[in-house]
Design a protein that fits this description.
With 320 residues, the protein is mainly alpha-helical. Strands 1-2-3 form a three-stranded antiparallel sheet.
């Protein structure tokens, strides 16, 4: 009789001992813990996968330890299983073995390798998305610099990209925070911490034109806010998000652009330009260098662009 084709091969089955324990655990979840049918189905699928993994390694389920579980979770990640799913499966595995222990099933794993001490795997860090220098140039140039609102929008884009500020930081700026002569701005960031950020000539020119011309056409009364809306009040962060999105569309950037993407782009391009990581950390207002370190993973090219002058200013700050 010919061997069955691959698509007709009998799927692997669990060893009897692990299958019986799993069935008992699922019965407990369904009839004692009153878990839903959907939950039971997910538990069966996820735990069967791990128990089959053990069977392939010829490891009895009652001898499995954390090292086996980590190997399985690592294999799931290598198959691009989402972090949320990996975390859920880790929780289910630990719950299963906690139930086995509560039932008095002898677990013969090595000392210090107990499944009961299985921790959630550390989530993978997502690399920040950024735009190219060419796209950034086009985006910043998109607003009409001959209108008050266009001058305002260009100045906003220059600070978001050319200085790497958060959108909330830009929205909270007052006129008094600007130091145009020294090309720097006083920023209040997270935790109400104040820092001095630098920007280059393109940003200075855009800010000067807006302050001297565009803002005068928008202001109403004694308003301290730097960036104003059509009614003369402080421009909101949400409005700035719309400005960034629209500028990205006008510039032909393929992906939707949001303010934090410009901040990511600033940091990435600074690292590409060999800026000192500590300086970039200061300019971004990060409390830990580990937060800034992620940009080294996405910086793959070197070159100029709008951040070139800001980079020179960063090196000037390093010399102070």
């Amino acid at each position: 009789m010919p061997a069955p084709r691959r698509s007709e091969a009998t799927p692997p089955t669990l060893p009897r001992a692990s299958r019986e324990r799993l069935d008992a655990y699922l019965h407990h979840l369904e009839h004692v813990r009153r878990r839903s049918e959907h939950t039971i189905r997910n538990y069966r699928h996820d735990l069967t996968g791990f128990l089959l993994f053990l069977a392939e390694r010829e490891t009895p389920f009652d001898e499995a330890g954390r090292s086996d579980a980590r190997s399985y979770l690592s294999a799931l990640r290598n198959r691009s299983v989402a972090d949320a799913s990996v975390k859920r499966i880790a929780t289910e595995m630990r719950g299963f073995y906690a139930w086995l222990d509560n039932q008095g099933v002898p677990l013969k794993n090595q000392p210090g390798d107990s499944m009961l001490r299985l921790r959630f795997p550390i989530p993978r860090k997502r690399l920040p998305k950024f735009i190219s220098r060419t796209e950034a140039d086009a985006l910043v140039d998109a607003p009409d610099a001959d209108t008050p609102s266009g001058q305002r929008d260009r100045a906003i884009l220059e600070l978001l990209y050319g200085a790497g500020l958060r959108v909330s930081e830009v929205a909270n700026l007052d006129v008094r925070d600007l130091d145009l002569a020294n090309r720097q701005v006083r920023v209040t960031g997270k935790g109400d911490k104040t820092r001095i950020c630098l920007y280059g000539d393109p940003a200075r020119e855009a800010l000067e034109r807006y302050v001297e011309d565009g803002r005068a056409h928008l202001v109403a009364g004694a308003q301290t806010a730097l960036f104003l809306n059509r009614a003369g009040g402080r421009l909101s962060a949400r409005s700035m998000q719309t400005i960034v999105r629209d500028a990205g569309m006008q510039a032909g950037v393929r992906s939707p652009v949001h303010p934090h993407m410009l901040r990511h782009s600033f940091a990435t391009h600074m690292i590409e330009g060999n800026a000192d990581l500590r300086i970039v950390q200061h300019l971004l207002g990060h409390t830990s260098p580990d937060t800034t370190q992620i940009y080294t993973a996405v910086a793959q090219r070197r070159g100029g662009g709008l951040v070139t002058d800001a980079l020179a200013r960063a090196r000037e700050l390093e010399r102070r």
